[in-house]
């Protein structure tokens, strides 16, 4: 019995010595592998910082620059880890690690579907999307300027000062109206003149206002014009169309439009054109003892009795 215990103890000690000697023999390779991983991460960080600056200087697309730099960093780190495992003699572990990462990605994909969906949408938008930074867009009822892009959200700054972060999956699947894609946008408004006024003369007055304004686009592709819109109750309505530059959409769509409306009104008034409001006609019949309704003073522009 004693001899059996001694032989077992000697076998265990021999095995431990063999493991220890084996560990000492591969220790330099493990240390070298760890050094490779550390150096790989540092080199990946330095290279991505360098390329980020290069991309940002040469590209006006920050999302694409961010995607490319992050992709370069991730690839370099993976290469460093695989190379380190090979140096350490753990090729089998490298293959198992790749298999485990793939399986974990599938499990996490089901667990975090929304996050994964927005991330994939962000990757798609990095290569193909309907807007860029500082474009004025509208998604559903959200209207504003694009301030930032990430792999999960698109940051929209509305003109009343709200910061809205729209999930990229919504940006990818919902209609996007881009008001500044080509730098031009057409505005319009309606002005009403009296039935007794000459329509063609009024159109010439309005057209002159459009032609003399330097902020309105004037070229072959973008025509500014005035047309008869409809015959209203008290006015002949003319519709004015004109093109503006949309580098600063808020200035073009609000300030410039208001300025043109004021100039048109002043020009028509200076030429003695009438700009009547709606006329309300009140009829009094002989057998009517009283008026069946009352008019607000604000609506009583002209009362004609018969």
TrEMBL record:
Gene Ontology MF terms: mechanosensitive monoatomic ion channel activity
Sequence ranges assigned to domain Mechanosensitive ion channel MscS in this UniProt record: 116-180
Compartments where located: Cell membrane
Alphabetized SUPFAM superfamilies for the sequence: Mechanosensitive channel protein MscS (YggB), C-terminal domain, Mechanosensitive channel protein MscS (YggB), transmembrane region, Sm-like ribonucleoproteins
Chief location bin: membrane
Keywords: Cell membrane, Membrane, Transmembrane, Transmembrane helix
Positions of the Mechanosensitive ion channel MscS C-terminal domain: 188-269
Keyword Cell membrane: yes
GO cellular component annotations of the record: plasma membrane
UniProt-listed PANTHER family: SMALL-CONDUCTANCE MECHANOSENSITIVE CHANNEL (PTHR30221)
Protein's name in the database: Mechanosensitive ion channel
